[in-house]
Amino acid sequence: MTIAPNTASGSKTATDPLQLIDVDHVRFYVGNAKQAAVFYAHTFGFQIEQVRDLTTGSRDEAAYLLTQGNIRLLLVSGLTPDHPASKEAALFGDGVKDIAFNVDDAEAAYERAISNGGESAYEPYTLSDEFGSVTYAGIQSYGRAIHSFVSRTGGYDLARIKKASMAYEPVSFAPKFRNVGEHALNTFNRKNPCGLMFVDHCVGNVEEGKMNYWVDWYENVLEFKMFKHFDDQDISTEHSALMSKVMASGNNLIKMPINEPADGKKKSQILEYLEWHNMTPGVQHLALRTNDELHSVAALRDRGVDFLEIPDTYYDIVWDRVNTMLTENGHSPVKEDHERIRELGVLVDADDEGYLLQLFTKPLQDRPTLFFEIICRRGSQSFGKGNFKALFEALELEQDKRGNL
């Protein structure tokens, strides 16, 4: 394997350098990658697919690749005290470091972002061996978060990995990774799938007054566009409020909502996040798409996932609101079993395009920071505006239990 800085741009593709193909992976910094891998495999049904550690020649970090559908989570722990993952795990606890984008030419995307005013997180470099290459380049986003651009060739091309093509050996995530092989959790998860398919969106929390700054940053640096906007009248309760703007890539494939706290009588979930995240902006939650919300939520509950508790009173009024909206816009009513939705505590919302089902986990670590959303879309491309009040009230109950309201 060779590791080399890129000194020339190479051939340019005919496409826009910032045309994002996919979420290449989501990189977590965690205190113990081996244990975290077992947690996410057991509770959320991920395959522990590949590993890079001391046994593969990696002397400074251990990394576990977890996959489910088109979701790739890369859990990284530092093996030395001065590794960035070691330092950040001590400061922030386990959490998301990098939302990495798959592109045709990582260096060209990086150069375009830098010319647009972006700040480098790290310069382009390439890992290569006889099977292919992976080129990485990174720019700094809000707080601790970065975006990597990743381009791949040969056996490391994502299209080949998805198809398990045998044209190149081995089909791997990157050089120095090895396949985990037979693993009891992997066997169980194949027989008992949770049905999670891909990353629907990724939400970031920033300081009060900085939302518009980062909206402008995504527009200018990554050439995203405004997709949705919610103010404190949309997202509020008696006690707390927030404002949010949703940024989307040019092809609407990748969506990045940005939240900031708003004035309220008590502390919002955004401010709670910041206070337990060393007052540093970062990724609040990942929304993972499923095509069968009831199956996925039931499977995850059976595995021990803690979801927010939705009061029964929510279901006394939700159906009139949702089905009226659907009927008025020429759509069929919610097809999923209403009683089963209540039993599982799933939230439902509708807009002029259809409806969605969603549910949010409680924090995935001891600090009240990162959590997941499980979402199913039946036409709706919104984010559950009609559920904001019920969701916030459920979150405030959890904040009060933690003494953080």
Brief write-up:
By secondary structure, the chain is an alpha+beta fold.
Write up what this structure looks like.
By secondary structure, the chain is α+β, with helices and mostly antiparallel strands. It folds into 2 domains: 2-191, Roll (2,3-Dihydroxybiphenyl 1,2-Dioxygenase, domain 1), CATH 3.10.180.10; 196-402, Roll (2,3-Dihydroxybiphenyl 1,2-Dioxygenase, domain 1), CATH 3.10.180.10. Helix content is 27%, strand content 33%. It has a 10-stranded mixed beta sheet. The protein has an 8-stranded mixed beta sheet with strand order 12-13-14-11-15-18-17-16, with helices on both faces. The longest helix is centred in the C-terminal third of the chain and has 16 residues, at 313-328. It is globular and about 60 Å long. It starts with a strand and ends with a helix. The model is unreliable at 7-13 and 164-170 (pLDDT under 50).
CATH class category label of the largest domain: Alpha Beta
Main beta-sheet annotation: 10 strands, mixed
* SS elements, strand count: 18
CATH superfamily of the largest domain: 2,3-Dihydroxybiphenyl 1,2-Dioxygenase, domain 1
Q: What's the CATH architecture of the largest domain? A: Roll
Which percent bin holds the helix content? 25-40%
Number of helices: 11
Any idea what the shape is?
globular
CATH topology of the largest domain: 2,3-Dihydroxybiphenyl 1,2-Dioxygenase, domain 1
> What proportion strand?
25-35%
Q: Class by helix and strand content? A: alpha+beta
Strand order of the largest sheet: 1-7-8-9-6-2-5-4-3-10
Order of helices and strands: EEHEEEHEHEEEHEHEHEEEHEHHHEEEH
Radius of gyration: 21 Å
Oligomer: single chain
Mean pLDDT value = 88
- The count of domains is 2
